[in-house]
Here is the input.
Amino acid sequence: MGFRESAVRAREAGAAAAVAGRPATDCPHRGDEPLLRAAWVRGYVAAEQQLAPSEP
Here is the structure.
């Protein structure tokens, strides 16, 4: 599996974690893979922003 596929999976996993209500500190990618950690966090934040109620 190449990096791009791993990054997509990390982003999707981050989004799933946000939807499930898990904390952002639950990221499985620690210091070993900073790029995968960044992809996971991007997915988490994107899903979290979509779940947030819109402000009037």
